[in-house]
Amino acid sequence: MKTTFKLLGGLFVLLILGSCEKDSIESMESTDLNAAELKAGQNFNNGMIHSYSNAVVLQWSETMSQAIDNRLPLPAEAKIYAMVTLAMHDALNNVVPKYETYALDNSAVDYSGITKKNIHSIADAAVSQAARDMMVQLFPPSAPAANAKLSEVLAGIDDSELKSRGIEIGKDAAVAMLAKRSTDFPLIFTSYLGGTEPGEFRVDFAPFVNANPNPPFWPALAVYAFNMGELPGFGILSGDQFRDEAQYPLNSAEYIADFNETKNLGCDACPMRTEEQTEIGAFWIESNSSSMNRLARTIAEQKKLDGWEAARLIGLVEMSIVDAYIASFEGKAYYKFWRPVSAIRLGDFDGVEETVGDVTWTPSFQTPPTAEYPSTHAYAGGSAAAVFKAFFNNDHVNLDVTSPYYLPGVKRRIRSFSQMSYETAVSRIYIGYHFRHAVEVGERQGKELGQYVFENNLREIKKVE
């Protein structure tokens, strides 16, 4: 199962960004802030924060990626990415409260004594401790890498009261994050008989038709995280917040067109699929969480975001992606629509003359054990694109993107976040996972979700006059 457990190699992104606006950071005359200024809600746009580089934030994001990519089902991976990056963001904003936090309240933070000269001591310690504690708790196999990275960072910081304070802040950020999500149910495989009527989702395709006695273990006729849509959102109100239109009826002209398109373009070695369509399908197959994490890291470096900005950007992107999983899985469980692999093999038995079946039809990549509508990949790609666009107040980019682990040497030129979102969505048709309606609705709803997440979470704290 290629895309559920073994995520294809990472996107290495070479970015030549167009002129984009980023959050401005204004300088203040003083580098050591007075305790009298410490009021929750103040807008601390100051040179002290701007002096903190993004290096340690990005290092931990990369360490996390190396530790968890390709080792978990995609929904579980998305949740870990969000929780780790948001804990890092919260830790920084409990050093100096520049932005709203997710779990650890920062309304009474006292940052007296912090200056441009010593801010790295407390901030690096806080970010590192938070990231390490989250990784070890959420994915214990990552402990060796996380512990080694923590030791490396802390060894480079002179012992001081600020270093100790930073460590405690990091621990508190992780504890608060774990407490806030403590009632979340686990994302696991469960048996699922599925429907028997045309259009109803079923798990009658390999390998999930049979039980798997080896890790990651699943029962016969298994689905994964079928109830994920019931999880509380991270930055949205509920899983059904953006649900609107239903899938097309099987006898509609729209469904018939979608059926034949995926049948002709999504099969293994489909002769009608162009070389570029084949490239797009394989190029964007990997996890949104990992690819967008790397993209955010590269943009943060290119745009020279400070540590606070970088942590916020990555946190918002990963928050939007996990929420896209929650929202799309809510739709999948609500509509329970069949995958192309079932629809096309049973096309002669669906009561529609125009959908000619093919019992040998096989998608170009192994279909995941989740229902079809809407497309999660399109949803998550759309949500991430909306966050990037809103953060930089610009859709225009000029990206040379490569996928060295799966298509080495192949480059795709991306001129906008919207183009990236579109290619991510339509790729699912070219690998036989989805019908066009699922990717169009998923992408649209994802963009709505991403905009909502950006406008309502981790906002800059406004100065109290």
Large-scale geometry: elongated
Largest sheet, strands/sense/barrel = 3 strands, antiparallel
| CATH class placement of the largest domain | Mainly Alpha
The helix/strand series, from N terminus to C terminus, equals EHHHHHHEEHHHHHHEEHH
What Rg do the Cα atoms give?
Answer: 23 Å
Count of individual beta strands: 5
SS-based class: mainly alpha
Are there runs of 5+ residues with pLDDT below 50, and where?
1-45
Number of discrete helical segments:
14
* Helical content (DSSP H or I, runs of 4+): 40-55%
**Count of individual domains:** 2
CATH topology of the largest domain: Vanadium-containing Chloroperoxidase, domain 2
Overall residue-averaged pLDDT value: 90
State which percent range the strand residues make up: 5-15%
How are the strands of the largest sheet arranged? 1-4-5
